[in-house]
Amino acid sequence: MQLAFDELGTPLRDVTFVIVDLETAGGAPGPDGITEIGAVKVRGGEVLGEFGTLVDPRTTIPPQIVELTGITTAMVQSAPPIDQVLPAFLEFAAGAVLVAHNAGFDTRFLRAACEGHGYTWPKPAVVCTLTLSRRVLSQTDTRSHRLSALARLFGARTTPTHRALDDARATVDVLHGLLERVGPLGVQSLEELLDFLPDVTPAQRRKRTLAADLPETPGVYLFRGPNDEVLYVGTARNIRRRVRQYFTGSESRGRMREMVALAERVDGIECAHALEAQVRELRLLAAHRPAYNRRSKNPHTQWWVVLTDEAFPRLSVVRSERDGALGPFGSQARAKTAADTLAGATGLRTCTQRIPARNPQGTPCVLAELGRCGAPCAGRQSVDEYAHAPRQITDLVAGTADAPLHAARVHIDTLAGDGHFEQAARRRDELVTLLRGVGQAHRLSALAAIEELVAAAPDGTGGWEFAVIRHGRLASAGVARRGTPPMPVVDALVASAETVLPSPGPLRGAPAEETGAVLRWLTTPGRRLVRTSRPWSEPVHGAGGWAPWLDKVATAATLENIG
């Protein structure tokens, strides 16, 4: 039978429900305390099986509970404890949607029992008939949403008695009655039912039609406002499914609900795989600066550490990339920490005054008196004598030497040896910031230096996902599904790839966030090198001769070798 649009997903007639009810000894959920479990498994209106047993709660049942349920302490003394009952119940309910009246009560006790006895709670989808009845039934239908009242309303074949199996049987008929009520409201699938349960305004629910024509593929989606402006940009493995969630109770963020209220259209952009979707999202965010994306309000600015262009250079923290810069750093504070650590390790001056090359007439500062600066401002260092310090910085950025790092480590060891442990710990943390910045800078600059690199990742179904990367930017992306010869696909992707003209700077002008995303994709286990424009024996500038990730990729099997 052809499914209607609203039935896309899992039709309710094909869903297996396990309707469960618990009786307890009272008190808070814990490892024990359950006195009885009753459950009925149904699918398509047909009962598939029942599960019922008394349970030893390992405690005395209070008189008020005995009066309510009729279950006495003597009745459960010979019953199995919950740790023996759980395996059988979890097997009975495996793969099913759990249903209960006031489901939060039952699931809290079951989850606590699992956690207390070393069983993994399977986290099933849960339907609460109490919540569903409050959503569906009006006061003219019923004044009460208690199970007994609903059982009478829907003519349940079993009367609730506060015994687990009887109450579960009654809840089966209540569930079926409620499902008949939500059918005319467009709820025909499990996904629709789960979306229907939370509190969602009618206007928000009506807008789910905006997702009707979106593809069920990985990609990027754009919410557009009344004037066709881009309100929000996001990525998803399944565009249609993700966008539909914005029109349900699963989207609880007030700001997103405000955005949905303004949205008039949702555009979907299909992508070959997750890397292409991530890169497209970054580019769209930069192009549109959508009002409801957090990164638009707080743009992720990259910071760089550079040597100033003067006779006695010093380190400066800037926002723009340039040749010889170290970075990028995610914050100005981290960049400044790295600059201060480098200055201290090399003897580079930290004052901001401009010092002439000849006959400086300045007065030495406190750092000079402490031996932490050569005082070129007072003529105590010539340009040639001072040049050793900035040269160490240049060599570190180029990846050809690491003297400043060793000097910083020696200083930390000296402080610790002299008993200045707190100061040594601060210097250690500062050195860690510098080391992470240097390592990331070398990896990113190594990638940006490669004119073209083609890599592949298994798609999980016997096919391949491809990325053509030029100077650290994604130039083309595609897939070869299982059974498709991969190399013709690679050739076509390379031929149609975007032309990338490198600019000055360590990243050749590539956006740092994009190059970082590409690098993370390349370094994920399972990636394979297809081809590269750079011979493996050729040193990579900015990576100390070899980028660590290139070593890993180079030793992996190539696509040609594995077919």
What's this entry about, in short?
The protein is α+β, with helices and mostly antiparallel strands. It has helices at 63-69, 73-76, 82-93, 103-116, 129-136, 147-153, 164-182, 190-196, 202-206, 239-245, 254-262, 274-288, 294-297, 332-346, 366-369, 383-386, 388-398, 403-417, 421-449, 486-495, 512-522, 548-555, 559-562, and strands spanning 16-24, 34-43, 46-54, 97-100, 126-128, 219-224, 230-236, 265-270, 303-307, 315-318, 326-329, 453-458, 464-470, 473-480, 528-532.
Layout: helices, strands, pairs:
Layout: E1 16-24, E2 34-43, E3 46-54, H1 63-69, H2 73-76, H3 82-93, E4 97-100, H4 103-116, E5 126-128, H5 129-136, H6 147-153, H7 164-182, H8 190-196, H9 202-206, E6 219-224, E7 230-236, H10 239-245, H11 254-262, E8 265-270, H12 274-288, H13 294-297, E9 303-307, E10 315-318, E11 326-329, H14 332-346, H15 366-369, H16 383-386, H17 388-398, H18 403-417, H19 421-449, E12 453-458, E13 464-470, E14 473-480, H20 486-495, H21 512-522, E15 528-532, H22 548-555, H23 559-562
Parallel strand pairs: 1-4, 4-5
Antiparallel strand pairs: 1-2, 2-3, 6-7, 6-8, 9-10, 9-11, 12-13, 12-15, 13-14
The fraction of residues assigned to DSSP E strands is 15-25%
Average pLDDT reading: 86
Q: Give me the count of strands.
A: 15
Share of residues in helices: 40-55%
- Biggest sheet, open or closed, and with what strands and sense? 5 strands, mixed
Structure class: alpha+beta
- Whole-number radius of gyration? 33 Å
How far from one another are the termini?
Answer: 41 Å
The shape, in one word, is: elongated
